[in-house]
Design goal:
It is built from 24 helices and 20 strands. The longest helix has 26 residues. Strand 19 and strand 20 form a beta hairpin. It is an alpha+beta fold. The chain is globular.
Length: about 675
């Protein structure tokens, strides 16, 4: 009996009609394996995963494979996005056994959950042979299987250990991290490493803050070049905005087409901050269109943001997105079709499969003549309308707390920068206004959804779907990302409620997730017991739980002045510091927070009757140092600690600047404020 029909996970629901007697992750599944004395197959993936779909079609939809699994195993299907704790433990096991990992992840375990053989994707022939071999080994070589499992568990325990060496995350370490990134930087194509190439969003956020603090032009250039290369490449959707998960090549040409919420949220922050610091027109456009993509394509009305758009359309990668020159002519006519083919590098040979091409921007059009920009945008609109008639990728519509937190933070920052830089004289002022209005509504609905649906009896739940919260408990990254988001929303709105909620989440995290020596576990002390308690300090596709929590702690302590949260942040960063200088590509979010602490972080309060239009507020946002918090509103506004006891000066708006709990005299002119922030 397949038990996935009542799952909340779209990934599990994709397998609800398989001839496999799937179980959801549960104690009952392992009890059944023990009762039958058979091993467990744990299959881990996610809804937008291309090779998960391939393995499902080849194996899990096959009657022969289903019979082998049903006769000899208890089969458990896990959504890695819904249960990141389960995924983390078995990914560590897979990497320990094979030297690599990925999804789909295929794990064979004993009835107590101990893994003894791990892998990723297996073609059907290989998978059938593997099932037969594991079945034979379980029956005839049980002791060897159990010894193998014990060795794997020992390896997992070492990889997930806490209590290692610590060091202050100081300026020399962050300087060393920046220098190491410069050494690993791909000066030709941007980014780091070869194929496949992932957007290095967290490293870019760190480098932008490092540039602000130190004036290092190299850090800015690495970020700017990488941002431009990605935005002009096939990894960026040249028609609708939004970034794909990664590029299969080293020069950003052909993407793996899935679009993840977390990537687009983090990249929105990158392009927003690059726009703020440089005024770059390309960064402005990409930030605007990525915000629009989040609001239009991923936001669920009245809820939060969906997790992802699928890599495939009707089982085919790129079906929605790829073009031939003939298709461009069909959609646009001969003249505009040739113009589009030249502009977007669409050739007869193609850059993708079967002579098709992924659209790339061949030239810099953001600074082109007005008539060229107008033609380009007109072509984009017509191509998008034509593309909308094609089959569209499926949507994984579950709402993940941590990823929604990342999106809320990104949209709050975008709103602040757009308010400062957008001008009624801009040629696309109406478009920018429309995006900010829609994005603001989506952001606020997502925050309300987290506060009222995901927060249950003071504890966060990891996921929801269709307005109903799921059972999986929130992990550390959920608490950190949502707390940081609520701090960002407090700054944007001046509403004390969001700061109060952020403090409650941080207090729970400090109480329930803390480990010795300033470290943190990824699961709470009362969470389900797995074969090990995960505690990964490194940033990967998303910020680690530890890095996310530190970001929330840094923002909250600056907004409230409560030093114990800063002390907790410093201790947690101390547990990551030994990794920062050696492996900065996996500590970008932690290093970003380290830059904020070194900078101050600055606390900027503007006492004003006009927070939306006051020039002091605009100057504060424009010139804010790394990690600074900015709050504006009436003096002594309820629930806003930064405005307490900070009156207007002689009836005029006044800016109060503090750094590391040391405050300067209030200033009333933009010139004085800018001088204090330099």
């Amino acid at each position: 009996m397949n038990r996935l029909a009542d799952a909340t996970s779209p990934y599990l629901l994709q397998h609800a009609d398989n001839p496999v007697d799937w179980w959801q992750w549960s104690d009952e599944a392992f009890a059944e394996a023990k009762r039958r004395d058979v091993p467990v197959l744990i299959s881990v993936g996610y809804a937008a995963c291309h090779w998960c779909h391939v393995m499902a079609h080849e194996s899990f939809e096959n009657e022969q494979v289903g019979a082998l699994l049903n006769d000899n195993f208890v089969s458990i299907k896990v959504d890695r996005e819904e249960r990141p704790d389960v995924d983390a433990i078995y990914m560590t096991a897979t990497q320990a056994m094979t030297g690599q990992g990925g999804w789909p992840m295929t794990v064979f375990a004993t009835p107590d959950g101990t893994p003894f053989y791990c892998g990723t994707y297996f073609p059907r022939t290989n998978f059938v042979q593997l099932l037969q071999s594991v079945t034979t080994a379980w029956r005839e070589q049980r002791e060897a299987v159990l010894r193998q499992g014990a060795n794997v568990v020992e390896a997992i325990g070492g990889a997930q250990a806490v209590g290692g060496p610590t060091a202050p995350l100081d300026a020399p370490l962050l300087d060393a991290a920046s220098a190491r990134l410069a050494e690993e930087y791909d000066g030709t194509n941007g980014g780091f490493g070869g194929a496949p190439k992932f957007p290095p969003h967290m490293n870019m956020l760190f480098l932008l803050r490092h540039h602000q603090r130190t004036g290092d032009t190299g850090s800015l250039e690495i970020t700017r070049h990488t941002a431009e290369a990605m935005a002009r490449g096939g990894i960026y959707d040249q028609l609708a905005g939004g970034f794909a998960r990664y590029s299969v090549d080293e020069h950003w040409t052909v993407p793996h087409f899935e679009k993840m919420l977390y990537d687009n949220a983090l990249l929105l922050r990158v392009y927003t901050q690059l726009w703020r610091l440089t005024g770059d027109r390309l960064a402005r456009r990409v930030a605007r269109d990525t915000a629009r993509f989040l609001a239009d394509e991923l936001h669920r009305p009245g809820q939060g943001f969906a997790s992802a758009l699928d890599a495939d359309t009707e089982g085919v990668e790129g079906l929605t997105y790829a073009w031939t020159p003939a298709q461009l002519v069909e959609a646009l006519g001969e003249e505009d079709g040739r113009f589009a083919a030249d502009l977007f590098t669409v050739t007869d040979a193609g850059t993708f499969e079967h002579g098709t091409s992924v659209l790339r921007l061949a030239r810099d059009v953001d600074d082109a003549a007005p008539e060229i920009r107008a033609r380009w945008q007109q072509v984009v609109g017509r191509l998008l309308a034509a593309r909308d008639t094609r089959p569209q990728p499926a949507l994984d519509d579950k709402v993940v707390a941590a990823w929604n937190g990342l999106a809320i933070t990104a949209l709050a920052e975008f709103q602040q920068v757009a308010a400062v830089y957008a001008s009624p004289q801009d040629e696309d002022a109406n478009l920018m206004d429309g995006v900010t209005i829609v994005a603001d509504g989506a952001m606020r609905q997502a925050a309300e959804h987290l506060a009222t649906v995901h927060l249950v009896d003071g504890r966060l739940r990891r996921v929801s779907r269709d307005g109903t919260v799921g059972e999986p408990a929130g992990v550390l990254e959920d608490y950190g990302c949502v707390a940081e988001a609520f701090c960002a929303l407090h700054q944007l709105t001046g509403e004390g409620r969001w700061l109060t909620l952020a403090g409650q989440l941080l207090d729970t995290a400090l109480e329930r997730f803390a480990a010795d020596g300033g470290a943190f576990y990824d699961t709470a002390d009362d969470a389900e017991r797995l074969i090990a308690r995960p505690a990964d300090p490194t940033d990967n596709a998303t910020p680690s739980g530890r890095s996310a929590l530190v970001a929330g702690l840094v923002a909250y302590t600056a907004l409230t002045g409560e030093t114990r949260y800063r002390e907790a942040a410093e201790q947690a960063l101390g547990t990551v510091a030994p990794i920062v200088g050696r492996h900065p590509r996996f500590t970008g979010y932690a290093a970003m927070s380290g830059e904020a602490l070194l900078s101050g972080p600055y606390e900027i309060a503007v006492a004003t009757d006009d927070p939306a239009g006051d020039p002091l507020v605009a100057a504060a946002h424009r010139h804010a140092p790394p990690g600074a918090v900015v709050v504006a509103g009436r003096p002594d506004q309820d629930g806003v600690p930064l405005l307490a006891g900070r009156p207007l000066v002689d009836g005029r708006s006044a800016a109060y600047v503090c750094r590391g709990f040391v405050c300067q005299r209030p200033v009333t002119s933009v010139e004085e404020l800018v001088a204090e922030l330099r």
